[in-house]
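hey m, so remember when u said the C-alpha cells were messed up on ur end? i reran from scratch. heres the input so u can diff it against urs
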Amino acid sequence: MTMFFPGFLWAAETGNPLSADGTTHGSHTEPRIGLGGLIDELEAANPEIKAARQRWEAAKAVVPQVQTLPDPKLQLGYQRMPMVPPVVEGAMYGFGQDIPFPGKLRLRGEVAERDAERLEQEYQATRLRLIAALKEAYYSLHFVHKSIEIVGSNKALLMQFEKTAKARYSVGQAAQQDVFRAQVEISRVLDRLAVLDQQMESLHAAINRLLNRPPAGPLGTPEEIHTTILTVPLHELNRRADELSPALRASAKGIDRSERSVSLAKRQYFPDFDVQALGLRNDRINDNGYQVIVGIKIPLFYESKQKQGVREALAGLEGAREDFTATRQDLLFQVKDGFVQAQRAERLITILRDAIIPQATLALQAAQAGYAVGKVDFLTLLNSLLTLQDSQLELHGEMVSHERALARLEALTGGSLNAPLPQRTSR
C-alpha cells in the first residue's frame, strides 16, 4: 500500500502550482538517480564489501589445507659402519610421513569450515549494512532536496510579501515594521538555504564514498519516494531476525566453531605418529636391505600444553555463547526500535498529509487574501507561511524517517521485508 498526494492547489501570490503538501512542482536540471542502480553499483564497487568477500574466499581455501596430511619427507643418505665386520657401506634412501591421530584432520577441517561459514555471514552482514547506509543517505539527500524546494518556494512568497508590504506602507496602510520583518525572514531563508546546500554536498560525498567514487564528483537528484506501509508484525520481524540475520548467524557459527575447537583440543591428548621407510644398499656384499621405523609423539607436557589448550578452547566457547546472547539482545532491540519508529512515522504522515497541511494551506490563502485588503496583520500572514513550511518539512522528514527505519529493518532481518516469511524450523 502506498500513499500519494492527490490534486493541486493554486498559490494566490506566486501563480505556481502547489501539490497538496504545498510544495512547488518545478523542473529539475540535475539528472535523476535511482536507488536500484546505486545499490548495484555499491555491491560491485564498494571496497569494504569486496574485502569481506575476499576474506570469505580466503577462509574457504584454508579448509582443504588443514584436512590434508603433512607433506612427506624424502630421505637420502650414505652409511658406513666399519666397526663390526662385515663392513656396512652404501646408500640410504626412503621417505617419512607424519600421521596425526585419527580424527584430528577431520576436526581441523570442521573448525576451518565453520570459520569460512562465519566469514560468509559477516560478508552478508557487511553487504546489508552498507546497502542500508546507502539507502539512509539517499533518503536524507531526498529530504534535503525537498527542503530546498520548499524553502525556495517560500522565499518567492516572502519576496512577494515584501513587495505587498512596501506597497501598503507607501500608501500608509501598513507599518514599516512589516517590510523589515519580511526582509529579516528572507535573510533567514537565505541562511537556511546555505545550510541545506552544505548538507547536500556532504551527502553527495557520503554516497560517493560508499560507491567508491571521488567524493567531489557529481551525483544528481534522488527520485520521488512513496511511503510503503509496514505490514509485517513485530513478532514476525523478530523471527526473521532470529532465523535470517547474518550478524546472528555469524555469531552462531562462532559457537559451532568453538565447540569443534574444544573437541580438537581434547583430541590433542592422543599421540601423533611418524612413519619412516628406508632402503639400504651394502656395496661390500652387493646386497640390499630395508628399515621401517614407527615413532610416536608422546604428549609428555600435557599439564602445561594440552590441558591448557582445552582450557583455552572451553573459555572461547563460553565467550562465543555470551557474544551470541549479546548480539541477539542488541538485534531484537534494534528491530523493536525500528518498528516503533516506522509506526510513529506512519501515524504522523497521515495526520500531516490529511489534516495539518490542508488546514495550514487554507489558513495561508485566507491570510494572504486578508492582508491584501487590510483585514489581517503581517505577523499573522507570516506565521501562516512559517506554519505551513514547518508542516511540509515535517511531513517529508517523517517520510524519510519511515523509509530509513525500513532500510535498517531490512539489514537487521536479512533482506527485503516483502520476501516470503521463512518456514518455521525445529531447533
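this time it looks ok to me. Residues 80 and 89 are 4 Å apart (CA to CA). if urs says something different then somethings off w ur setup not the seq
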